[in-house]
Amino acid sequence: MKTETNRWLIVLGTIITQIGLGTIYTWSLFNQPLADAYGWSVSSVAITFSITSFALAVSTLFGGKLQDKFGIRKLVIFAGILLGAGLILSSLAASLWLIYLLAGVVVGFANGIAYITTLSNVIKWFPEKKGLISGISVGAFGTGSFVFKYINQALLSSAGVQGTFVIWGIAALILISGGAFFLKDAILPQETTAKAANKNYSIREMLHTKQAYILFVIFLTACMSGLYLIGIVKDAGMELAGLSAATAANAVAVVAICNTTGRVVLGALSDKVERLYLVAAGLLVTAGAVAVLSMVELSTTLFFVCVAAVAFFFGGNITVFPTIVADYFGLKNQSKNYGMIYQGFGIGALGGSFIASLLGGFQPTFIAIGVLCLISFLLAVTVRSPQQPAAAKGDRDRRRHSRPIPSQQH
After folding, report:
1. DSSP label at 377?
2. pLDDT, position 71
3. pLDDT at 145
4. What angle do CA 227, 231, 232 make, to 5 degrees?
5. CB under 8 A, 24+ apart: contacts of 296-299
6. Is 3 helix (H, G, I), strand (E, B) or coil?
């Protein structure tokens, strides 16, 4: 009973930390206030979040090694202090390049280190409930973005952009570093380690499998579709569906709610059904939704239904993927292996904007994303675990040897 209680305290610490980490998804609230305060263009300020997302993804490559050296608790406390400091110092930045450095690189780097290590660590504590625990943990990240959307919005009105940076930084520091005190490095049970020994791939071994690259492409596509929509959903509603600015702004809340719901629901469901089939279903629904957004005359209801569908499966896919990587390549090196696959998030964050600038406009970009989703859907329904071909071959051999000898009678 004591072990079980300790495990759930680690879940609690992970939830608190992830709520603090999820606050970075409120960045879009700061674009206009910063532009007004310093005379910058909104589009230039908005680049900050792309830098944050890219730095977040790159930092996940180092999270596992840093955890091995310092331990999960010290590492996450440091990440919380670094992230909080980055936000607090952003209140003093009068240069756009300093905003890029502090709110972009520093905050993103700190966020990625804490995100990948806390998520991978808590999954290791619950090898029998990987999907559910991943859903709860990553759902907390979405909850942080949803709750702080209203907190930061109120602070911007009352304390101004500089004051909000300070308060936000202090709150994020307390949540992330405070949650870290409940954390403890996972030790896999001996029977689990022995049973999965043939699947504990190192990064080098993982990169020698074709499955690693297929999963990377699928994850990149899933991230690109959601991240692109999150960044432009209000503007898309006004242009494609003819919504007023006030009505279109509600799409931001819809994205946050459905994103969080998808993380919890699909996370729990992934313990009961084939995980990659869930991802495949999400890619298919996303392809259909962006096709409607780009080619159908949109009513208000239809627009919000499509947005909700994309956000739901984006959140769900982000949640299910860590457990897929653990299924394919083992739990032992989960932080390092998932950190490599997670680079699809950073490239996806930039990829949607790149495609949009190349093709011009929301509609052709949605069509391109839809095509990529269909390609990744086909990959998701055909890829198999690195061990499965050998297992399948063994099954065929057993069936062949157990097959009765045909009768010679005619």
Report:
1. H
2. 94
3. 85
4. 120
5. 298/240, 298/241, 298/242, 299/241
6. helix
For the chain, the residue count is 410
Structure tokens at 223: 């991230």
Nearest to 135 by CA among 15, 42, 47: 15
pLDDT tens readout for residues 270-324: 888 899 999 999 999 999 999 999 999 989 999 999 999 999 999 999 889 999 9
**Residue 72, pLDDT above cutoff 60:** yes
Q: Token digits for 263? A: 């993380």
Tokens of 197: 């020994």
Q: Which two tokens stand for residue 289?
A: 């939704």
Which two three-digit tokens encode residue 229?
């929509």
CB-CB contact of 224 with 352 (8 Å): yes
Contacts of 134 (CB under 8 A, 6+ apart): 119, 122, 123, 267, 270, 319, 320, 322, 323
Instruction: Name the helix (H) or strand (E) containing 296.
Output: none
- Separation CA 59–CA 109 (nearest Å): 5
Q: Look at the block and give the residue holding tokens 């905050």.
A: 107
Rounded to whole angstroms, the Cα distance separating 344 from 407 reads 56
pLDDT bracket for residue 387 (50, 70, 90): low
Q: Do 242 and 320 touch, CB atoms closer than 8 A? A: no
**Nearest-angstrom CA–CA distance, 124 and 264:** 18
Q: Report which of residues 86 and 360 the model is more confident about.
A: 86
Tell me how crowded residue 213 is: count the other CB atoms within 10 A of its CB: 14
Going by pLDDT thresholds of 50, 70 and 90, the confidence category of residue 331 is confident
Token duo for residue 186:
């996972």
Residue in 7, 17, 25, 18 with CA at minimum distance from that of residue 314: 25
C-alpha torsion 149→50→103→106, nearest 10: 130
Which residue type sits at 325?
V
Residue 257 CB partners (closer than 8 Å, separation 6+): 146, 311
Structure tokens at 187: 């030790």
Q: What is the pTM of this model?
A: 0.79
